[in-house]
Amino acid sequence: MSLALLGELVAAFPADLLRTADGERARYETDHRNRYHGRALAIALPRTVDDVSRLLAWCNQRGVGVVPQGGNTSYCGGATPDASGTQLVVSLERLDRVRSVDAADLSLTVEAGCLLADVQSAAAEAGCFFPLALGSAGSCQIGGNLATNAGGLNVLRFGMTRALVLGVEAVLADGRVYERLRSLRKDNTGYDLCSLLVGSEGTLGVITELTLKLSGIPEAISGGVCPFPSVEAACNAAIATIQSGIPVARIELLDDVQMDAVNKFSKLTYAVKDTLFVEFHGTEAGVKEQAEMVQSIAAEHGGGEFKWATRQEERTHLWQARHDVTYANKALRPGCEIWATDVCVPISRLAECILETKKDLKQSFLIAPLVGHVGDGNFHLGFLIDRDQPEELAEAERLNERLVMRALAMDGTCTGEHGIGLGKQKFLIAEHGEAVSVMRSIKQALDPLNILNPGKIFTL
Q1: Type and span of the H or E element at 411
Q2: What DSSP character marks residue 84?
Q3: CA distance 415 to 348
Q4: How does pLDDT run across 295-328, given as a tens digit for each residue?
Q5: Is the pTM of this model over 0.90?
Q6: Helix or strand or coil: residue 167?
Q7: 98-216 topology per CATH
Q8: Any alpha helices (H) in 148-230, and if so which ranges?
Q9: Does the structural domain 220-325 have CATH classification 1.20.1440.20?
């Protein structure tokens, strides 16, 4: 750590804006899975966009790296400082206000530090629905969801986060504020800088406020759970459902290992088989028809008896298995760390990709439950490892590389929703090739001194 630089920082900003003591910095210097660690110059806790602007202008003048941080729930080290002790972590947690909810225009404007759960609640109180659904809703911040273009359970029906964003306010590297907070569904003027900022992982600007697209609350919602004789049968049923054009809201796959884990942890009684969880939104008649069609497709692929739920309490209980995945996996091997990864492939290759991945897992000494948003070809592995055992980390990395290269060979992507951060940089180059140089050019144009989350996504 540069004591002289820290002294300048402390002299330039109010004391309540900064945290400099070791104990105060610690929780901002590692991700929530303790997979990536660093050391920060200090932690800044701005209260306003003007605070963020002044901090970035100061850092830009001195070439100090800035690491924007939300709830710090990402898997790839995208919000972790490096080990130099010279980067400033800017946490947006104090910018947590809901600015406005417009039920007539179906839009909502919030500050970036607002928890996703609070965004969902604000929308519901106005009689609307915000469809981004993540397991970490109670801890992840909406600005981080934008910065990583988060996915979640409702992508199939409503799209990734980018599809839900109408406008952003962001501070650029030199302290300038870009503001485009509008509730318009159509805007064909100039470059789409809003979409460029979404998914940029804090490397192009610090998102401070955003306007989001809301939907009406569906008249009826129905959920169902169906076991299958094999993971191939479950995948093929999901593929057939999508190809039939049925407007299903969610299709989630939990493999037999994952179902066993959630049964034990949540005291459930589901069959220990590869299982699909589905959900439908719409009118009562529409939901009933969709459910019947999916049930017929499942039967054609060997699916067992469906368990259905329509009331909120019943659906919550039905989906408990899916929402308890993380806790169930940790309980499967107490004291372990979950080393998570994901890929996404065209749905026509989904069954093939998962089958080959499961073969790898059967030949390995590691446990790795599989769960996926299979309606859009995306699935996740959670390797349960002891980080103090180097051979376990090496095995997780070996299996992950095989998984990613398999997905790329199938015209897929190295990550459907976790992002690149530090963990998947080499795969980004393998996937995009020369296009990465174009990304670098955009980065250099907006951040010529490379102060914004330096070293993340790619190196300059």
Answers
A1: none
A2: T
A3: 17
A4: 999 999 999 999 888 888 888 888 888 888 988 9
A5: yes
A6: strand
A7: 3.30.465
A8: 155-158, 193-197
A9: no
